[in-house]
Design goal:
The protein has helices spanning 19-33, 45-52, 56-68, 86-105, 110-126; strands spanning 2-3, 8-9, 41-42, 72-74, 80-82. It folds into 2 domains: 2-82, Arc Repressor Mutant, subunit A (Orthogonal Bundle), CATH 1.10.10.10; 86-126, no CATH class. The protein is built from 5 helices and 5 strands.
Length: 128
């Protein structure tokens, strides 16, 4: 199942992530990469569900998760849009600064700190 406008593909095979999680992850990735720019209007829940051959509740669940993460925002009757990345970028920058300060206090070199961060990110994203 593919959405031509969003370039979303849902893999229905056994062993793949739940459809709502695939949808959530693909929209989040595209929004964070800038492929879906801030202000991009997303299809309605029903419209995207029909386009992808999913239940409306599945798309609604993905949209709720994305909204809770600050990736998208619903503007009432006007629709659902990709949110400005400022909040997530600000939060990531603050976390990175806190990590850098802690690594410095621990006496790590820049290479050691980067290696530790890369290991943690690989472990976290491998879990998905």
């Amino acid at each position: 199942m593919t959405s031509t406008n969003l370039k979303i593909t849902i893999d229905g095979s056994t062993g793949s992530a739940a459809p709502y999680e695939q949808l959530r992850a693909q929209i989040a990735d595209r929004a964070r990469s800038g492929e879906l720019p801030a202000g991009f209007k997303l299809p309605t829940v029903r419209g995207l569900a029909q386009e992808l051959g999913l239940a409306a509740n599945t798309v609604a669940k993905a949209y709720r998760a994305l909204e809770a993460d600050g990736v998208i925002e619903t503007r009432g009757r006007h629709g659902t849009f990709v949110a400005a990345a400022e909040g997530a970028s600000r939060e990531a920058a603050a976390a990175a600064q806190a990590f850098a300060e802690r690594a410095h206090r621990l006496g790590l070199t820049e290479a050691e700190a980067l290696s530790a961060a890369a290991d943690a990110l690989r472990a976290r994203f491998a879990a998905h």
